[in-house]
Design brief:
The chain is α/β, with parallel strands linked by helices and about 625 residues long. The chain is built from 18 helices and 21 strands. Helix 10 packs across helix 15. It starts with 17 loop residues before the first strand and ends with a helix.
């Protein structure tokens, strides 16, 4: 029985409580009756037998087979009988001489993964047939709900390669979530293209986690995935993971039966875990740790990181902060193709099918020395009854979440559809643009598929589209003037420089800060050229200052009760954007009233406080005199 207090459940992270002995009988073996082990977070301490017996309520009869709990890299796990016997033998050997000292059994960390640069971390790919819990394990490892998880046996939710940094105890590595593999998929289909993309990623990874469903056992499709893996990555180190094993028990033989079937894959000992509940993550940690440490030591990644840290300066890091960029738009307008063009690689799946992207894919890249996080979102659709449930609703919610996190939003339009409908933006696109403006984000409009309007027969149509789109956008979104519009063809792969230059320019405007002296000089010129209807009722701005950036926010301190009207605010906003070149970003102007008699009010307050001090002093003197008179009498 286990009678220690504050014992956390198994497989909980960051446990800092003590663990004791779980005994099947009453006392410890006679040869070590003088001492016993109490294990606390990987360390062994000493305690007397009497206190042990009092703590766990043991009698004088003999007992056998004690069990120990041990902390393994911030995970709690049950030690096997061999390890428990080893601890007991060490206790018997060192009972007299090493009392009070720390035992030799400790968890030694060979590599500190937190000191390795994120781009040099080892890569681990999660793969398997569809609907075995790959995305759930991905979310468990990165400790966030980033990948979409939905029970769809007949459909594939994940289609692109998603990447994140896994935090498993003291381990850090890059984990990749892949689409479900079907080896018998027809050529040219979506499944065959996702399998081809997974094969390309395999060449850049060091380990693979092959997931199977422990409840269903090893199916023929799992065997096909194993054959496909051996064919595409012959030397890949593969670990078989039996997911959804929370309902299996070793007592009734269900766990042993599932493990026996997993051996048919031919990749060694399987690991039973549950990505939903976190069961078995300690065993996964102990399996991955020696493999990852070996890779890090062989490639000398820690030494490279130290050199890199010495060369880098803090000033450069502060000057170029990471930029969050989100690509949004309706389905099948070329968002994924534009992302591949910007990254100059086939990062996400593209094709003629509408709604091909479901997950919001986040990619990191460097452009002109600046770190940029680029997010490709799923296509925005108008809400219908069919989309209120299922993967489509999750995709829309995820797209809205990334729109809120972004600094600059790229709204992609279809040039061919604009030419056919004679309309630049539909209702969904107007909603996206207005929401971006309301949230205070920078906005860049990209008109894609311009290659379809080239040629002599489409010359007039091409010219009319390039002239009409900026004017119509300004009419639909009057809150922001000067929204930049870029006409590109992402399929040709030549639009990276034009798009990124406009994004960087918009981001720098979004982060702009203007000094107060320059703003007040500008204010005097602007107020003099503005035509006021009534000079007597003209609002008086005492001074004008910027209080924050991202987006630029200004405050006009007014003297008197007269406030700026909506027309005056629009005039100041338009003048700010024209004079300081702030087009394409929202500008906010707030008003504050400054009291004119602030000095007289402060002087009156000082007089009141001085009078109160005089009263206190007088009262103290009176009490002192009263006491002296009473003493003399």
């Amino acid at each position: 029985m286990l009678l220690l207090r504050n014992l956390k459940p198994f497989f909980r992270r960051k446990s800092h409580y003590s663990f004791g002995i779980l005994s099947r009988a009453t006392t410890l073996p006679g040869e070590i009756t003088s001492e016993f082990h109490e294990i606390c977070c990987g360390r062994t301490f000493w305690s007397s037998t009497s206190s042990c017996n009092e703590m766990i309520g043991l009698s004088s009869s003999n007992s056998r087979n004690p069990f120990f709990f041990h902390n393994v890299a911030e995970f709690c796990t049950l030690l096997g009988q061999e390890k428990a016997d080893e601890l007991l033998d060490n206790a018997a050997a060192t009972s007299g001489s090493d009392r009070g000292k720390e035992a030799k059994y400790t968890t030694r960390e060979m590599v500190d993964f937190t000191q390795i640069h994120i781009n040099k971390l080892p890569r681990v790919l999660i793969m398997g047939r569809p609907n075995v819990g790959k995305s759930a394990l991905f979310n468990r490892l990165i400790r966030r709900r980033e990948a979409l998880v939905y029970n769809t046996p007949t459909d594939h939710v994940t289609r692109d390669i998603r990447e994140g940094v896994a935090k498993l105890g003291n381990l850090r590595f890059k984990v990749l979530d892949s689409a479900g593999i079907e080896a018998e998929a027809s050529s040219g289909s979506v499944l065959s293209r996702t399998a081809e993309m997974t094969g390309n990623v395999l060449s850049k990874t060091q380990l693979a986690l092959l997931l199977v469903d422990a409840r269903d056992g090893v199916l023929p499709m799992d065997l096909d995935v194993g054959k496909w893996l051996r064919k595409n990555a012959p030397g890949m180190k593969t670990i078989v993971v039996m997911n959804k094993a929370e309902s299996l028990d070793d007592c009734d033989g269900t766990l042993a039966s599932a493990a026996g079937e997993a051996y048919r894959l031919g990749f060694g000992d399987p690991i039973a875990l549950s990505a939903e509940t976190g069961l078995g993550m300690a065993e996964l940690h102990e399996t991955l740790r020696p493999l990852l440490e070996e890779y890090v030591l062989q490639n000398n990644l820690c030494a490279d990181e130290e050199v890199q840290d010495n060369d880098s300066s803090s000033e450069d890091m502060e000057c170029k902060l990471p930029l969050q960029l989100a690509i949004v738009g309706r389905p099948n307008v070329g968002k994924s193709t534009l992302l591949n063009t910007i990254l100059q690689e086939d990062r996400v799946l593209v094709g003629p099918e509408a709604g091909l992207t479901r997950d919001s894919i986040r990619a990191e890249f460097q452009y002109e020395g600046r770190t940029i996080y680029l997010v490709d979102t799923a296509g925005w659709l108008e809400r219908t009854k069919q989309q209120e449930k299922g993967p489509a609703s999750l995709s829309i919610m995820q797209s809205r979440k990334h729109l809120m996190r972004a600094h600059v939003i790229v709204l992609v339009l279809d040039a061919e559809e604009i030419a056919n409908t004679r309309r630049s933006m539909k209702h969904v696109e107007v909603v996206i643009a207005r929401r971006a403006v309301e949230e205070g984000r920078g906005l860049v409009v990209i008109v894609n598929k311009m290659d379809l309007l080239r040629g002599k027969e489409n010359y007039k149509l091409y010219k009319s589209v390039t002239e009409a789109v900026p004017q119509e956008i300004q009419t639909v979104i009057p809150q922001v003037t000067g929204i930049p519009v870029v006409f590109v063809s992402a399929l040709e792969g030549k639009s990276q420089i034009a798009v990124m230059n406009q994004v960087i320019e918009t981001y720098e405007k979004w982060c702009l800060r203007l000094p107060t002296a320059r703003l007040n000089r500008w204010l005097c010129k602007v107020m003099s050229r503005h035509s006021w209807k009534d000079q007597a009722a003209q609002p008086k701005i005492k001074y004008f200052t910027q209080v924050k950036a991202r987006p630029p926010t200004f405050i006009a301190f007014m003297s008197g009760k007269t406030q700026l009207s909506d027309t005056d605010l629009r005039f100041l906003t338009r003048s700010l954007k024209e004079d300081f070149d702030l087009g394409g970003i929202p500008v906010r102007i707030l008003q504050r009233t400054v009291e004119g008699n602030s000095r007289t009010s402060t002087s009156s307050k000082n007089k009141q406080s001085a009078n109160r001090m005089m009263e206190r002093v007088v009262s103290d003197k009176r009490t002192i005199l009263a006491v002296e008179n009473s003493s003399t009498t």
